[in-house]
Amino acid sequence: MATTEWTRRRWLDWVVKAAAFLVTALIGLPTMAFVVLPAFRRSRPQWLKVGRLDEFRPNEPTAITLTFQRRDGWVIRTVRRTVYVVVKPDGSVKVLSNICTHANCAVRWEHQKRAFFCPCHDGYFDLNGKVISGPPPRPLDELPHRLQGGFLFVRV
Amino acid sequence: MLNWLERETGLVSAWQRFWAQPLPATVGWGHIFGALSLLCLAILFVTGGAMMFYYSPTPDQAYPSVQYMERFLPFGKFLRALHYWAARLIVPLIIIHLVRAFLWGAYKKPRQMIWVTGVLLLLCVIGFGLTGYALPWDQKAYWGTAVRLKIAEGIPLIGHAIANFLKGGEQIGAVTLMRFYVLHVFVLPILTFLVTAWHIRQVHHLGVAPAWVRVGDENAVPKTQRLHPDHTFRIAIGAIIFTALLLWLAARYPAPLEPRANPLDTAYKPHPDFYVLWLHELLKLFPPDWEFVGSFVLPTVLVILLLAVPFLDRSPERHPLQRLPAITTGLTVLFAIIVLNIKGMEALPKPENLSPLERRGQELFVQLRCYSCHGINGGGGPVGPDLGLGGKRDPKKVEALLRNPGAFNAHTVMPAYNLPPDDMKALVAYIVSLGPQSRMPPIPPVEPEKPPSHFEDNWLIIHKFEVRKDPQSCQSCHKPFFCQACHGQRRPSSHLRPDWLKFHFGNAADELRTCDTCHTPDYCADCHRLTRHDTTWLRQHGATLTKFGETKRFGATTLHQLCYQCHTRQSCDECHQGALPENHKVPDFLQRHGELAKSGDKTMATANRQANAQTCATCHTQAFCTNCHMGAKPKSHEQPNFVGQGKSGHALEALRKGVQSCATCHEQKFCANCHGMPMPHPQGFVRTHIQEARRNLPLCQRCHSWGEQNCRQCHAKRPPSHTADFRETHPQRLSDGGASCQVCHGRNACADCHRLPMPHPDNFLHAHGELAKGQQGNERRRVQNLHRQLCAHCHTIAYCRKCHLLGNP
User: Fold this and answer.
1) Is residue A2 part of a domain?
2) Alpha-carbon gap, residue B395 to B358, rounded angstroms
3) Nearest chain B residue (CA) to A34
4) pLDDT interval class at B582 (50, 70, 90)
5) Are A38 and B473 a contacting pair at CB < 8 A?
6) What are residue B138's phi and psi, to 5 degrees?
7) In this structure, is residue A111 part of a structural domain?
């Protein structure tokens, strides 16, 4: 009698605990996923059309301002970003960010000096984005690009 | 660890005691609903808390954040549905629990407080429902809340105060949403937690009432069970069934999300939720003036009665047959509520019974995306009329309209639908069948998924700009004739003006790409062949423009203006790409450009000597200056006499537009630079102005002309100093040399009487003899005349004798 009572109790105890675990898991796991997973999600890279490749003159960096939309949670904001397109005489293309690597100022192409000039701390970069003089620690960032049907696309 | 916890707090043994609580043998399956309500409450708490991570309680962002949750987050839709369904199920669960307790007589002494706290919990849950309803900020939320607040306003005496407190102001808006949010996630949860804890503690303290035993005989029932695992097993089985039901409901029927709240949409009809239908029906039983009886008095009485049940029914009997009055009353109320609810459900719009033909038409309605412009009793796009309204339609007319909408309204944006006869018949049949009972068919999600830009609220408005920017990006998903689904053969509204042809070049000059959206570039050449610029022209246009840009005229227009008829100023940049003209290359150009712009450039070639600001305008717009010169002079400052005497331009401008407009660029003390005092005169200045005027009269005179016009407007009455003997005594009062007189009388006022500047100037003693020269007669006569006419006002002849020995001059 004592043993049957004991097994019944144990069995009931086991069922209750399993049910508690099951219900907690069924409700809790989706909730955890809902709260945690989106924080680790990476946004899809955006390929933006910069222009027709033959519109850019060789050895003459051209500033292009791209306007695109960025999703920030439920807010969609329109952001602008400037890139410099450098086309070499041999046809190779570089798309450089206009953000100075030193203090995040905007650099501009100085036509006479044939260099990118950062007005904040007198940094100079050459046509390839390499540092000529001034404080910047590394060359200008290059943005990935691709060519498709004569158009230049850049990833931001 | 557990030992330590037990030693320090005694929690472990308390926990064990709680679960080992003995229960009477008669506790059974009917007793699980309290625990299930608690589980439901926990699920609501967890899912609601998770949604708080993403929800933003502002009218601007509430709806987008809910949409974001549903569209972009893992399990977002599922969790919201879970919360929605748990919120709907907890009300029946608590009511079943309540009815069970009522039938079992579980509220009898000493368990009155268990009942009371239970009823309070029911009220809390209803409060959750009422506040949570508003949070998604969709149409249903907004209009439902509007109705509820209106009902609250109907409560006599305190109704307006309650409604205003909930609204947080005069209208339903940002403050309302925040209040509902705080009530829903802060105030009510705390209340609910406290009351729940009290409720459970009370049950634990007094034990569960054995079924149908007279009060006092409880101990006769053997306590053969323990809470765990005997009763928890029943709860576990119930919990699994309940959770399965909840998960199934949430997965199968997502929580509805209507279009975003639109306070301007007067066509929206909110329908009450099923569990408040009985209240809704109750309202209908009363005339409008007595509506508060249904909306407030009866529910309040019901709540008070519920709370008072244990104090009204005090007989020791528990068995239902032994306390028939209480049971009958309770069941009657319950029955009345159920009957009213069923009646209310009948009044809800019923699902339509569509014939197969009409069903096919409904499919076409969805397929052809008619819903993107037309709603059916709400829903759908706002462009076309709502098809649920407007009564019975004539099938022939509907068909004619579908085939050629332009015949009914020349400006319509509705595209023509030339469907095969069968489809046309079906669609017409469906449209004709629509009436106030009809509902919008479910709209399948658009596949493939729209790009994020299309979810912008203003997408429909701004899409034309996006098209102009890059038609190819649209064409990557849409066929070119996609535009015609809405635009049809319609020309843009600008083209409908009768004088369009005459003015089109202006629009083209503003934004040539606008034209390019529909026309190819060589479209212009059809008419404008002569204006085409060939290569020779291209080579020469720079020199021609700099030489003759302003001098050569075609009728009234200069060469430059002729260019601007088609080109914008930025058009130069398209080729020159920022190439600098020669004069910009001078090292100190930036320092000197101001004077260059004004006067003409000496370093430039002779032909350009006369260049002036017009030269800058060749490439730069006016706005270019403001890039650096944030405060470049506004137009108003250019009028003649802007700064000058009297009511000059700037004073008038400041009076007309208010000083605020000056304050855009100038600080307040800017006025004081010239005026020496804050301008316009501060309040109360009229009381102190006399001191100011005495202190520095010329300051006043900069703007105010002399006495007659200005001072006399107010000072027509004599000031108190001008007593009756003032005329005799005023010379003695001129302590400040007459300046204070001038405030009112002006500089030459003395001369009105004295015919001389008064007081006498410094050199008067030497020169007063000259005055006599203007008189007639001999010398003696002249002096006498002079004295009589001028000096006698103040001086007797004896005064002269102080110096002159008269009689022998």
Assistant:
1) no
2) 13
3) B74
4) low
5) no
6) -95, -175
7) yes
Is residue B229 reached through a cis peptide bond, with omega within 30 degrees of 0 on the bond before it? yes
Listed residue (B53, B406, B8) closest to A37, CA to CA: B53
Please tell me whether residues A62 and A119 are part of one structural domain. Answer: yes
> Is this structure's pTM higher than 0.95?
no
Q: Provide the phi-psi class of B365: left if phi over 0, else alpha when psi is between -120 and 50, else beta.
A: alpha
Distance from CA of B145 to the nearest CA of A (A): 24
**What does the alpha-carbon distance between residue B400 and residue B369 come to, in Å, rounded to a whole number?**
19
3-state secondary structure of B287: coil
Output the average pLDDT for chain A. 87
Sign of the torsion formed by the C-alpha atoms of B498, B499, B502 and B507: negative
Identify whether A55 is part of a domain. Answer: yes
Contacts of B46 in chain A (CB under 8 A): 27-28, 31
Which chain B residues have a beta carbon less than 8 Å from that of A74? 54, 56, 61, 64-65, 67-68
Long-range (24+ apart) CB contacts under 8 A made by B362-365 are B362/B430, B362/B441, B364/B419, B364/B423, B364/B426, B364/B427, B364/B430, B365/B427, B365/B430, B365/B431, B365/B441
- Which residues, in sequence order, are bridge partners of residue B795? none
User: Of chain B residues 4-43, which have a CB less than 8 A from chain A?
Assistant: 39, 43
Same-domain status, A32 and A67? no
CA gap B690, B56 in Å, rounded: 60
ipTM above threshold 0.90: no
Report the 10 Å Cβ neighbour count for A56: 19
What total of structural domains would you count in chain A?
2
Q: How many CB pairs under 8 A join A and B?
A: 88
How many other C-beta atoms lie within 10 A of the C-beta of residue A123?
24
- Cα B275 from Cα B96, distance rounded (Å): 14
Mark whether A106 and A31 lie in a shared domain: no
Instruction: Give the separation between CA B566 and CA B583, rounded to whole angstroms.
Output: 27
Quote the domain boundaries for residue A112. 47-155
Cβ contact B67–A30 (<8 Å): no
Of the candidates B759, B760, B782, the one whose C-alpha atom is nearest the C-alpha of residue B771 is B782
Strand partners, A79: A68
Per the model's pLDDT, the better-predicted residue between B751 and A12 turns out to be A12
Measuring CA to CA, which residue among B404, B397, B380 is closest to residue B431? B397
Find which of B69, B89, B240, B473 to mutate to test the A interface (most A CBs within 10 Å of its CB).
B240
Q: Specify the CATH number for the domain of residue A79.
A: 2.102.10.10
pLDDT tens by residue, B476-486: 777 655 665 56
Q: In this predicted structure, what is the pLDDT of residue A50?
A: 82
Cα–Cα–Cα angle for A121, A124, A125, rounded to 5 degrees: 135
Calculate the CA B803 to chain-centre distance.
88
pLDDT at B118 over 70: yes
Nearest by Cα to B114 from B299, B305, B309, B301: B309
Quickly list DSSP for B660-714: HHHHTTS-THHHHHHHSS-SSPPTTHHHHHHHHHHH-HHHHHTT---TTTTHHHH
- A62 and A33, same domain (yes or no): no
Residues A61 and A118 in one domain: yes
Same domain? A92 vs A77: yes
A1 belongs to a structural domain: no
CA–CA distance from B265 to each of A45, A108, B378, B613 (Å)?
Answer: 39, 51, 9, 53
Nearest CA to CA, how far is A36 from chain B (Å)? 10
Distance, in Å, from the CA atom of B70 to the CA atom of B65, rounded to the nearest integer, reads 9
Give B271-323 pLDDT, tens digit per residue. 777 777 888 888 888 888 888 888 888 889 999 999 999 998 888 888 888 88
**pLDDT tier at B244, thresholds 50, 70, 90:** very high
Q: How far is B611 from B581, CA to CA, in rounded Å? A: 13
Residues A116 and A142 in one domain: yes
- In this structure, are A145 and A89 located in the same domain? yes
The answer to whether the CB atoms of B470 and A49 lie below 8 A apart is yes
